[in-house]
């Protein structure tokens, strides 16, 4: 996981630097630096939210809302059957956990890379 994090942070920095070198992106104004910074912050926010959800910190909170919802709204039998099928499918659960872990890692890495680039370029203005 740490290796993917550093790969994603480094690759974002390399791609942005490459685009600047071939003059595809011209980062000369503070507005462009602010955009890079905001995209980096948003990416870090998404990664942090996914990290909190993966740790199970809010599971008790979500289970409470799930039980409140089941008391107030009756589920159709077909929906219960689909929920049981999803709960029994271990391959889908494994894929979902793997996908969310990869997305979290890459989101945190891209956010770190963009924040580092915007910070370094803002010091050079």
Indicate the topology:
Layout: H1 2-21, H2 30-55, H3 59-72, H4 77-88, H5 90-123
Helix pairs in contact: 1-5, 2-5
Q: Can you walk through the features of this model?
A:
By secondary structure, the chain is mainly α. It has one domain (2-123). The chain is 85% helix and 0% strand. It contains five helices and no strands. Helix 1 crosses helix 5. The protein is elongated, with a radius of gyration of 21 Å.
Would you list the SSEs in sequence order as H and E? Answer: HHHHH
Beta-strand residue fraction: under 5%
Number of helical regions: 5
Name the poorly predicted regions.
none
Indicate the overall shape: elongated
Number of domains: 1
Report the helical percentage.
Answer: over 70%
Amino-to-carboxy terminus distance:
34 Å
Largest sheet: none
Kindly provide the radius of gyration, computed on alpha-carbon positions and rounded to a whole number of angstroms: 21 Å
Average pLDDT for all residues = 84
Give the structural class.
mainly alpha
For the secondary structure, the number of strands is 0
Features of the shown structure:
single chain, 125 residues, mainly alpha, 5 helices, 85% helix, elongated
Summarize the structure.
The chain is mostly helical and 125 residues long. It is 85% helix and 0% strand. It has one domain.
């Amino acid at each position: 996981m740490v290796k993917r994090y550093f790969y994603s942070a480094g690759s974002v920095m390399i791609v942005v630097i490459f685009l600047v070198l071939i003059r595809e992106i011209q980062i000369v104004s503070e507005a462009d630096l602010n955009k890079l910074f905001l995209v980096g912050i948003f990416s870090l926010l998404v990664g942090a939210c996914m990290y909190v959800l993966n740790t199970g910190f809010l599971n008790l909170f979500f289970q409470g809302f799930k039980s409140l919802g089941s008391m107030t709204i009756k589920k159709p039998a077909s929906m219960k059957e689909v929920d049981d099928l999803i709960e029994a499918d271990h391959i889908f659960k494994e894929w979902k956990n793997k996908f969310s872990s990869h997305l979290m890692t890459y989101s945190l890495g891209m956010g770190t890379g963009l924040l580092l680039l915007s910070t370094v370029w803002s010091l050079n203005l």
